[in-house]
Records
---
Amino acid sequence: MPFNTKFIFVTGGVLSSLGKGLASASIGALLESRGLTVSLQKLDPYINVDPGTMNPFQHGEVFVTDDGAETDLDLGHYERFTTATMGQRNNYTTGKIYYSVISKERRGDYLGGTVQVIPHITDEIKNCIKGVADGVDVVIVEIGGTVGDIESLPFLEAIRQFRADVGRDNVIYIHLTLVPYITTSGEVKTKPTQHSVKELRSIGIQPDILLCRTDRFLSKELKAKIALFCNVGVDAVITAKDVGCIYEVPLVFHQEGLDHKIVELLNIWTRAPKLDTWEEVVRHFKEPLHDVTIAIVGKYVNLTESYKSLNEALHHGGVANRSKVNLFFVDSEKIGKDTCSEVLAKADGILVPGGFGRRGVEGKICAARYAREQGVPYFGICLGMQIAVIEFARHAAGLEKANSSEFDEFTPDPVIYLMTEWFDERTRSVQHRDATSEKGASMRLGAYPCRLTAGSLAHRAYGSEEIAERHRHRYEFNNAYRQRLEEQGLVFCGTSPSGDLVEIVELRDHPWFLGCQFHPEFKSRPMAAHPLFRDFIGAALAYSRRRSAA
Ligand code: GLN
């Protein structure tokens, strides 16, 4: 079949965490800045069918798409750096590929043939890649893991074959490696790069472009040496220099000539890149006019990877307010009634993010209480909204033992509970959840519509009455308590269009206190901060000003 779409495959070598996801996203940004349309895809070598079941400590955040896919966090970078919308088709794992092939085998689709890695698994992979190509100029496919891993072999074999399938001019391979600086000898070393490229060539892939991750710009001589040993053009050796702010990566790549080289190799004519919006974002990041401190009270406090989109959204909120955002993480297991005010004293705003399980919940409740009583801006996301409701029920509405049935199945007042029957706006049908197997109960996943009450904080932020936001949770607000909590000053200002599901709560007498059942962080962009993050940071700035004036 003839293909008009061009394909860029991004692989990585030497070690993981070199920033392949950011590199792929930045390539997307650069191509869009030249007026091309792009799509991105991540192929992950692990066996889990999706990352939904993996520990965020190990794997980082689970990124949720509009269509309800639980995906790798790199898809978050793709959406933040480009205008492409990610979905189920943009992330495949080995598990998902095999699952599909095995299901076909069980159905008898292979007519008694022997099912093998080549061609059945590799064909399946190639079809998945083609599945995102429709209607876009360039598809950027990132292969997870590093070259040399046993698990990534079928993916590498598939992308090797791909070039022959769609034509040499339509495919390039970009390889990201490490060029370390060795302090003792005062030199940068190219050997790891040479070995990594050798490894890639041994499976039949000759990279066209090398992205060399390093802490300094590589000299012409060094680039020439790498070019010679790795069999690429000197102008195809790109310094992927460490940067202070991730939104600088497209600019550094551009300076190094990456987008120019890509369009040359792929034989595409484009306009000159327009990068002014990126330059402005980076300038705002680097030259803030104000300063604000936000406490994130959560469980996975050691790894910023677990809250990737959240961190980014907070910084976007900072950019929108020309403010630097200092984040400090508070382990909710380490705070209680007595220590809370001391630990949170320096916070201009308190954020309780999403989470699962009972651990650390009481500390989060203390933090929400402190924010409510002291007038500190509070932003509760998903679990953070549920925490705010529990806290309010206990300390403002006199339901001392109120809880979520996720944390206490025998609570007399389950203000948050597992709704067994509800109307699903996406499928427009009544859905059932089985309360007897809570962990196995299905989650509400992906984008759902929400109607806002005029005059609320949320309504003012969004500037619109109907919004759609992404969900990933099982438990919901229990409507049996709506009236009682409302009478005490909790405002239910966002609900599903049918009114059944509570999506946003606010406090009547508080400068800025908002909890939402969805995850707004997934839709924030560096040049267009999410309205709730923008206003939360704005409220925190106002709080810090009031505090220093007092
Ligand atoms: N554990 C809660 C639930 O399942 C909240 C989930 C979340 O914060 N993502 O409803």
---
Amino acid sequence: MKPVVVVHGGAGVIVHENAEGYRSGVKRAALRGYDILRQGGDAVTAVEEAVVVLEDDPHFNAGNGSVLNEEGDVEMDAIIMDGKDLSSGAVSAVRCIANPIKLARLVMEKTDHMLLTCEGASRFAKSQGIPEIPGETLISERSKERWKKNLNAGSKPNTTCQIGMGTVGAVAVDSQGNVACATSTGGLSNKMVGRVGDTACIGSGGYADNNIGAVSTTGHGESIMKVTLARLILHYMEQGMSLEEASDAGLNFMKTRVDGIGGVIAVNSAGEWTAKFSTKQMSWAAVKDENLHCGIYLGENEITPLPETV
Ligand code: GLY
């Protein structure tokens, strides 16, 4: 089986001056995941490591660069899933760690549970030797500015995809034909303390099943949860739709049924892949057959670079 990895850096509106940062970030993440697969690594490790690259990059709303809740603190959600046996691990509303996706993987592999939250997740992180870091180190100037702007405007948390929403995710197929997904986010800017979004919820923020494929989602979390977007797309694939048709159908259903917008990346067990979105933009990158593809814009606005050989 030829390995493939696809990553996204979030659906929303990406202002021109940030476009290059998003583009280079998703490329680096996809190449990191592909390197692991090329060396015979498994899909779970590839998606985890690709997401770590994006969590460490302050352009994106995950890990370092996460948006702030109503009190000006970072609370993050993440999920990882192994399509081999449907095992999954997730964390929600976690603070003061650099890479929530690593903690999600530990939940999957070292506990009998699938989702740990808040204080319990922190205690588990400590027990696993994950260092606690000062919360401020995760806060970028951009997220602080946005938080202040929202606070002054007295606005509610984003209900549509506004500038740099930036949840991150990855899906992969390894040389053994196993699929996996990983998704990580700071959630919605100025959200209520304790708010948990779609990212931590299996079937919403992501889903992976070797018999079908894997999906990672981004967009308005409450809308994604209402339609369980990741599992919905895989359901459409089970019904015989192509990856593209299923992804479009899932996004269309979310728009028509609950007026929600977002984006998805998906692979199937045959190693085909897609990146689709109903927002203005979504940064994404994919590597297959030693070719790196990436994009940000929709349709005719897309400046599609030629695939690069890696
Ligand atoms: N999709 C990210 C969130 O709403 O939390």
